[in-house]
Amino acid sequence: MFNKLSIRWKITITIVLLMVFIFTLCNIIQLFLIQVSIINQQHHRIEKRLTETVAYMDEEYNKKQSNETFIMDTRHYFEKIIQNNEMIRLLDTNGKVIYTVSQKMPKIDIDKNSVGQFRQYRLHNQEILIASKALHYGKFHGILEVAINVEIFSKFVKESFFILIFGTIFSLILSIISGWFLSKKLLKPIKNLNHTMLKIKNNQLKERVFVGEINDELSELGLIFNKMMDELEASITRQKRFVEDASHELRTPLAIIHGHLSLVNRWGKKDEKVLEDSLNTCINETNRMIILTNELLQLSKLEKGNEEIVKFEPCNVLEVVHEIINNYRLLHEDMKIDYVQENDNIDQANITREHLMQVLIILFDNAVKYSKDETRINILVNQSDQHVQIRVTDNGIGISEEDLKHIFDRFYRADKARSRANGGNGLGLSIAKNLIDDYGGGLEITSEYGEGTTAIITLAVYRFE
Fold first, then answer.
1. Which positions, given as ranges, span the membrane (predicted)?
2. Which region among 112-126, 282-296, 323-337, 425-439 has the lowest average model confidence (pLDDT)?
3. What's the chain's average pLDDT?
4. What residue spans define the domains of the chain?
5. Which of 74, 78, 237, 310 could make a disulfide contact with 101, Cβ separation 3.0–4.6 Å?
6. pLDDT per position as a tens digit, 402-455
7. Burial class (CB in 10 A: 0-12, 13-18, 19+), 410
8. How many angstroms separate the CA atoms of 127 and 108, rounded?
9. DSSP conformation letters of 384-430
């Protein structure tokens, strides 16, 4: 039943039950302490009265040495000093009352067996406390009893009990009201979060939780939720753009293939030149789609961490860099490549040869595709204690500040018109970034529009164990 209640009711009930327990425990302790304190005070009071009475009788006996005169004089004295709700009674050893001096006290039974002890009992709705002591004065042997009516103090304890009960009930009512409003205030951020989530469920992805200036756990929860939604919205935006771009990239070659096949189907069967041109175009576009799908597959594996490395071997950075330089000088005779090595020795890096080769090919291809009339590439290699750094700088058209924000997004191309003409799919830098990240390295792109681009690869130095 409790589990089916709302959190607000759970908090309220928990607060009320806790307050009931605390107030009940405090009331029991207070009543116990009050009662013990009153009993101790009355015991001390009656003991003091008994001691004073015996001391007076001792003094009178020593003066007169006469039992009859001594006893009657003490009675007259006690009648003068007796207070309300008190009794002084003298008995012989047989329990016979010699005299009783009292003010507003009920008749009290005699109990010879309790001499020297405290007695407390109820009589005619009165609470009586009695103390007694054996007396020995010459031939006289008797018992002196002093009694006090403590009913007023018992009533005080009872009244205190009812006052505490009333205070407890009043406090419980306040705790219910305060618990209800406190739970409402505490749960307000969660309620706001719930409303925001319902709006987001209705495709309002831009909704966010309002977070005030209060720095508590619920505010932190709201901040985390907002950050999570920012990342989720960005991820959904990227996915939508990915689907749109992938559809666009596949639609163009499919449309070209469909157009050429329709051309062949209509009248190209008899024209060898048209047939050959159409088949070559279909093959080229099919190859483009194969490359595109392979790149998408690799990128998907990289992002999921499923890229398989059959056997990891650290990479000799200089060998890979020199091989890339030689290959591109062979492919592009008009390309100028300047190489600078700042350290005499460059250690092996924590990346496989194949993956570093793939990253550098992506960077060199981009430099060629987006270069000006004359392609010039500067490549610099240096090493610190823990990292190897490779800088690839071209003299291309550069990238605008706005485009730099999306440079690693899939299918994103700063110059869309030239990208397709150059055969680009907009996946190269995404693949390069994921490859470097998988090895704990970093890839940074800096550029100024019209002034060229610099790619900085940072890799950890491989330490042999």
1. 12-39, 161-182
2. 112-126
3. 79
4. 2-160, 217-304, 317-460
5. 78
6. 888 888 877 776 655 444 455 556 778 888 898 898 888 999 999 888 888 999
7. buried
8. 11
9. -SSEEEEEEEE-S----HHHHTTTTSTT--SSHHHHHHTT--S-HHH
Specify the CATH number of the domain 317-460. 3.30.565.10
Contact 95, 110 (CB under 8 A): yes
Q: Name, in order, each residue with C-beta under 8 angstroms of 344's C-beta and a sequence gap of 6 or more.
A: none
Rounded to 5 degrees, φ, ψ at 91 are -125, 155
Nearest to 156 by CA among 127, 131, 129, 130: 127
Token pair belonging to 254: 């499919």
pLDDT at site 418: 45
258 vs 421: CA distance, rounded Å: 20
- Rounded CA separation 211/195 (Å): 14
**Minimal CA–CA distance to 79: which of 97, 60, 54, 53?**
53
In whole angstroms, give the CA distance from residue 461 to residue 465.
Answer: 13
Q: What are the two backbone dihedrals, phi and then psi, of residue 125, each rounded to the nearest 5 degrees?
A: 60, 25
Q: If you count them, how many residues does the chain have?
A: 465
Q: Are 386 and 460 in contact (CB under 8 A)?
A: yes
For residue 116 the two structure tokens come to 């020297």
Contact 169, 24 (CB under 8 A): no
pLDDT tens track for 79-91: 888 887 788 888 8
Do residues 461 and 349 lie in contact, with contact meaning Cβ atoms separated by under 8 Å?
A: yes
- Give, in order, the Cα–Cα distances in Å from 89 to each of 49, 79, 96: 13, 11, 10
Give the span between the Cα atoms of 432 and 291, in whole angstroms. 16
Burial class (CB in 10 A: 0-12, 13-18, 19+), 174: exposed
CB-CB contact of 315 with 349 (8 Å): yes
For the domain spanning 2-160, the CATH number is: 3.30.450.20
Which CATH class, in words, describes the domain spanning 217-304? mainly alpha
Q: Which tokens is 302 given?
A: 């990289």
319: pLDDT confidence band, cut at 50, 70 and 90?
very high
The burial class, CB within 10 Å (0-12 / 13-18 / 19+), for 455 is: buried
pTM above 0.90, yes or no: no
Among 135, 168, 150, 127, residue whose Cα is nearest residue 23: 168
Q: Which tokens sit at 12?
A: 């309220």
**What is d(CA 37, CA 39) in angstroms, rounded to the nearest whole number?**
6
